[in-house]
Amino acid sequence: MGYHIKQFEQGEIIFHGGDSSDCAYIIEKGQVEIFAESNDTIIDILNEGELFGEMGVLDQSPRSTSARAITPVVLLEVKTEQITNRLAESDAIVKALVGVLLKRFRSLLPSQGMTAKNSNLLNQVESVVEQTGLSKFKLESELRTAINNGDIQTVYQPIQEIQKNQIAGFEALSRWSHPERGFISPVEFIALAEETDLIIEVGELVFSRAIELLSVLPDHVFININVSAKQLDDNQFLQRVVAKVKQHGIQPNRLKLEITETMVVDFKKARHWIKKCKEIGFLVCADDFGTGHSGMEQLLELDFDVLKVDQVFVRNMFKSERYQIIIESIASMAQRLETKLVAEGVEYDQQLEVLQALGFNFGQGYLFGKPMSLEDVMKLF
Ligand code: C2E
Ligand code: CA
Ligand code: CA
């Protein structure tokens, strides 16, 4: 695809209104004037580093204005595919917004007797708004309402101390039962919440409920909570959690915060979060450990209290020797690093036996219990 350089003399036309839009330009050197040829009005004067000619590329319509070099000019060509590929890969809402803005902006331009006729992308964008974009917007509003109405439930999955065969704690998991769509997976609605600040509110719900539950459970029982980057970046969020912990007289080390690798792209930031949590007294777990790309680096750089080994290892431990070897190595590393180990996705006795032999501290999975309601948790104690 590559970049191309184009040069124009002072006064030379770069493109005329009505020409086909085969690329956009970034100004490397010089000054460019965007103007309407019909009445010779200047629309804009652009300098080094600025982008122009992108509008026709975006909606595949002819140039709606003309462009002229007002000094000698060097331009860097940006190919249509470079723009349309990016847009095609972008979030539905971003596409929708670009489409709407483009339409609005065009309506403000001095008319040159032409419209975006073959506006493929614009049509595409409009249908995307209708399908994905709008439904996503709608779901987001419904999620907001659900949070306010208390329709986001919290369930608790047991975490078993496998050397003693007793429940040691729970992982709090969010549930949303939508009035029309039924059960919506947290994978879907948490991702949506993370795109906005709604995750702060979801998190606040989960923490409040977990802290209240801890205050009525025996002192040795802990609760794990999934946190996302936005929550840990928000100092006030953590302060509110700390206030609730104090208010209920809970030992902070009964709360364990689960962080996934996708959040740990920036080790400096992750170290800062972990330090902050530990200062408060919370314990910190690496969630879904072993699946990403930075497992070793995480162990080197970050001081986790607990590693939660991802479900794929337990699921495949009898199917593939490779999984077995890796899980054994994780176990021996964790012991030497004095990091506690949780195995996720334990479903069968045979799996449990191997994990016990490898020295895992905890197990979580359907063998010990599915996520359960508050009432069912209370019945266990
Ligand atoms: P996760 O943190 O890895 O949570 C474990 C998931 O595995 C849960 O799915 C749980 O129901 C499921 N699971 C537990 N034991 C077994 C088993 O033995 N076999 C199988 N096949 N699955 C098992 P769930 O509840 O659908 O949650 C999915 C993900 O959504 C969670 O993955 C977590 O990343 C996220 N999530 C859920 N609630 C919250 C929340 O309140 N806040 C945040 N930030 N994320 C949440
Ligand atoms: Ca988790
Ligand atoms: Ca997990």
Describe the protein.
It is a single chain. This protein is of the alpha/beta class. The chain folds into two domains: 5-132, Jelly Rolls (Sandwich), CATH 2.60.120.10; 150-379, EAL domain (TIM Barrel, Alpha-Beta Barrel). The chain is built from 14 helices and 17 strands. Helix 6 (198-216) runs parallel beside helix 8. The longest helix is centred in the middle third of the chain and has 29 residues, at 120-148. The site of one calcium ion has 4 residues, from strand 14.
Number of strands: 17
Counted up, domains total 2
Average pLDDT? 89
Quickly give the CATH architecture of the largest domain: Alpha-Beta Barrel
Strand content: 15-25%
What is the class of the largest domain in the CATH system?
Answer: Alpha Beta
**Any idea what the radius of gyration is?**
28 Å
Instruction: Pick out the low-confidence regions.
Output: 112-118
Helix content class: 40-55%
Largest sheet: 8 strands, mixed, barrel
CATH topology of the largest domain: TIM Barrel
- Write out the CATH superfamily name of the largest domain: EAL domain
Q: What order do the strands of the largest sheet run in, or round the barrel if closed?
A: 9-10-12-13-14-15-16-17
Summarize the structure.
The protein has 381 residues and is of the alpha/beta class.
Indicate the topology:
Layout: E1 4-8, E2 13-15, E3 23-29, E4 32-36, E5 41-46, E6 51-52, H1 54-59, E7 66-69, E8 73-79, H2 80-89, H3 92-108, H4 120-148, E9 152-161, E10 166-178, E11 182-184, H5 186-195, H6 198-216, E12 222-226, H7 229-233, H8 235-247, E13 255-260, H9 267-280, E14 283-289, H10 295-301, E15 306-309, H11 311-316, H12 321-337, E16 340-343, H13 349-358, E17 362-364, H14 374-380
Parallel strand pairs: 10-12, 12-13, 13-14, 14-15, 15-16, 16-17
Antiparallel strand pairs: 1-8, 2-7, 3-6, 3-8, 4-5, 4-7, 9-10, 9-17, 10-11
The structure holds ligand C2E and calcium ion (2 copies).
